[in-house]
Structures are given as structure tokens and as C-alpha cells.
Design brief:
The complex is a heterodimer of chains A (107) and B (120). With 107 residues, chain A is an all-beta fold. Chain A has no helices and eleven strands. The relative contact order of chain B is 0.31. The chains are: A mainly beta (107), B mainly beta (120).
Chain lengths: 107, 120
């Protein structure tokens, strides 16, 4: 099973600042990596797939990069609605696996 | 817009069974892979199972293999998860999720979730 490790567990950021979230895979998953956003009491929302392709309707301030084992989600200028938990997911191998999440909170 | 509505959750005793349903609408149901993803209270996301668009391929997490069965009824546009031999660690919100056209293992729409509680 591919283990996905996200860091940091919590990221404190001021509105308007840049946020950089990391996701590491225990072995290469090529570019088969997705990012989701989840707010309290809501279902997750797809942000990025293919490591860097934004899903439909996702603002350009969200960008993804990386391949192999190291991936990054960047939020260029945090808006109030971006404070949430973010999960990465690999889909290169079965079983599909998620990272433990990074909570982005208001500083 | 795509709609996914789960039902069937509730309180069940350890060793019991439950069947979850997910009613899908506003997309061509038989053209997309569908999945179940769960989230234990206060925890992260855990993939449970995926069924291919045609239903011929099914995949399971090791934690549920042999106990859970995923299926789909194209005539009813409904996804199911039959859960047997339930354990306390199966307690979670269960989400139904639609796969992208390609790849189907990326989830672009999610239901609101249904809570399953396994407790005596």
C-alpha cells in the first residue's frame, strides 16, 4: 500500500498570504495525484488532479506541482473561504490512499 | 448539476449488516466509475471501494474485503454498498463519489454522506 504523508499537519496563514502544502508518497505515483478541500460538515471538493490540472470551476489561485514522490499544493493568496482541511490522494495503485490532511487555519 | 444522495445509514450492532444506497441523477450513470469513501469521526478520508462504469470491475480496501460488496443498478441509477460483519472501526460517515471520465479513481462529485454507527 502506498502511504501518503502530508505536512505540516496544521498551517497558520494570514488572509492574502501564500500557503504551501506538501504531500509525499512512499513510492513513485507518477503524476497520479489529486488534491481535495474539505470544510467542516461538508463533503470534500476536488481541486487538482494529474498533480497540476485544476478541476472545473477551481480558481487560478490554487495550483499543484510535482511528480514521483513529492507534490505541492500552493494557494497564492488565501481568501477567507480557503480555510479548510486539504487532502492529497494517489490513484496510481490500488488501494487508493489519502494523506492524513493539512488544516489551514487563520493566523 | 450532478446529484448524489446517500441513504441507509444508522445504528447497528457489531456483527450486523447494513446496505447503503446512493441515488444518482443529472449525469449518465452507467458511463462513470463510482466509489465509496468513508471518514471516521474527527479523522481523515479512507477509500472503501470502487466499481467500474460497466460494473465488471470492483475494488476494495483490505479493511473491508470479504465483508463489503459494492454494486450498481443502472435501471435505478443507484449505487449500493452491502456491509456485513460490521465492526466498531467501521463507524464513519460514508460518502458516495463519482469518478472523472478519466481517470475514474479521481472523485469530482460527492454526496452529503450517511453516518454509520456500529455499537452495542
Amino acid at each position: 500500500e502506498i502511504v501518503m504523508t502530508q505536512s505540516p499537519a496544521t498551517l497558520s496563514v494570514s488572509p492574502g498570504e501564500r500557503a504551501t502544502l506538501s504531500c509525499r508518497a512512499s513510492q513513485s505515483v507518477s503524476s497520479n495525484l489529486a488534491w481535495y478541500q474539505q470544510k467542516p460538515g461538508q463533503a470534500p471538493r476536488l481541486l487538482i488532479y494529474g498533480a497540476s490540472t485544476r478541476a472545473t470551476g477551481i480558481p487560478a489561485r490554487f495550483s499543484g506541482s510535482g511528480s514521483g514522490t513529492e507534490f505541492t499544493l500552493t494557494i497564492s493568496s488565501l481568501q477567507s473561504e480557503d480555510f479548510a482541511v486539504y487532502y492529497c490522494q494517489q490513484y496510481n495503485y490500488w488501494p487508493l490512499t489519502f494523506g492524513g490532511g493539512t488544516k489551514v487555519e487563520i493566523k | 448539476e450532478v446529484q448524489l444522495v446517500e441513504s441507509g445509514g444508522g445504528l447497528v450492532q457489531p456483527g450486523g449488516s447494513l446496505r447503503l444506497s446512493c441515488a444518482a441523477s443529472r449525469f449518465t450513470f452507467n458511463s462513470y466509475a463510482m466509489s465509496w469513501v468513508r471518514q471516521a469521526p474527527g479523522k481523515g478520508l479512507e477509500w472503501v471501494s470502487t466499481i467500474s462504469a460497466g460494473g465488471g470491475g470492483t475494488y476494495y480496501a483490505d479493511s473491508v474485503k470479504g465483508r463489503f460488496t459494492i454494486s450498481r443498478d443502472i435501471s435505478k441509477n443507484t449505487l449500493y454498498l452491502q456491509m456485513n460483519s460490521l465492526r466498531a472501526e467501521d463507524t464513519a460517515v460514508y460518502y458516495c463519489a463519482k469518478g472523472l471520465a478519466a481517470p475514474g479513481q479521481v472523485f469530482d462529485y460527492w454526496g452529503q454522506g450517511t453516518l454509520v454507527t456500529v455499537s452495542s
